[in-house]
Amino acid sequence: MTALLLRKCDAIVTSALEPVRIGEDILCENGAVSAIGPDLHIPEGAQVIDGAGLFVYPGLVNTHHHFFQCFVRNRAELDWTRYSVIEWLDLIYPIFSRLTEDCFYHSSIVAMAELIKHGCTTAFDHQYCFPRHAGSRIIDRQFEAAELLGMRFHAGRGGNTLPKSEGSTIPDEMLESTDAFIADCERAIDTFHDPAPLSMRQVAVAPCQPVNCYRETFEQSVRLARDKGVMLHTHVGEGESPVIEKVHGMRTVDYCESIGFAGADTFYAHCWELSRDELEKLAASGTGVSHCPEPVYLVGAEVTDVPAMDALGVRLGLGCDGAASNDNSNLMHCIHSGYMLQCLAAATRQDPVPVPARFLGYATEGGASLLGRSDIGALRPGMAADLFAIDTRRLDFVGTRHDPISLPAKVGMGAPVDLTVINGRIVWKDGAFPDLDEGALFAAAETTLQTVLPDTKLRR
């Protein structure tokens, strides 16, 4: 693999927790960072990039998404503000159930491409939509899309097993049996999961959420994940606790803990409705939280208490979530909006808002922790050569350059980054994907979308 050297960078942020390196080089070889320092030796044949003006950061780690929902966004008739949650689900799930295998492939390309453009290098997708006509090889197509774009990809093999007649929100055509779900989780793990350092492919067992699955689905998920040594993931604390309490006699956190669906190998998405006592339980068990700030604007009854999570020691990462509750796939934007939302709610909090640097940390090392990875999330020798860089020689950044670590949260980065590197390979540079025709990818995705949802054509 060709070496890559970024030469005399204005600033290298190796971690949100460490001092910024000024005017130094960063050398990437064989998929890993090999050295950071001044005037590094240039290996023969290395690609050299002039780092003048560049701020270099660890690649962002997205810990919760639903790629397929990129095909159902910017739909005014599905605006959350017009419906209750149940009414909205009854409208949108029939649309989800029409998607084909090709839809899942192309929507994955759409989501990952946008993530890469904005500095994300590792993406976890919670794929729980399996219409019967689309088959069971959707995860396979997602890995195919990730390989095309060069994305480091973690697939959360989700699923729903509880019929609507028994209280779920899932149409029958999207249901699976527990046995079928577990069998395909095992197949996906055996086919794709690579636990080695610098792995580009991993799989997690991720039943969609407790309100849409039988208890046995969660019990068998725990057994399989622990047997295979993979992560567990699900939705928790987004308004379902009263339902779980009514059915099972306890709120969701206690329900999951009673099953064993908790611990250092487990992380939940959202958790905006959890009490302080419940957050203390997550901290005690080591269970992580993927905080998705932008859906709070639409579907959160309150701003997630990130200050309490941080103060109590809950492991925190950031996620975009799907287009059903966030119409973009821009994790960089989530850093800024996440910080600003906490500032808005500061007067109602027991704990102070974490400093801006912490939000960059959630999106990098925090996300790596949730995914069980110690080889991503920071720039240090031996760790993955996953990074992004911005050229700060623009009017946008005048007055901001004295503090590169706080910049993403405090100021925000509104435009695509100038460079994204994954596993030592340039996957985005100067507004283009090297060796890929974005226009052709766009046309293929649009054609597939309009075949299934013809009302998405541009209206004159």
From TrEMBL:
Pfam families: Amidohydro_1. Residues 55-427 form the Amidohydrolase-related domain. Keywords: Hydrolase. GO terms for molecular function: hydrolase activity, acting on carbon-nitrogen (but not peptide) bonds. The keyword Hydrolase applies. SUPFAM superfamilies: Composite domain of metallo-dependent hydrolases, Metallo-dependent hydrolases. PANTHER family: AMIDOHYDROLASE-RELATED DOMAIN-CONTAINING PROTEIN, AMINOHYDROLASE SSNA-RELATED. Belongs to the metallo-dependent hydrolases superfamily. ATZ/TRZ family. This is Amidohydrolase. It comes from Hoeflea prorocentri.
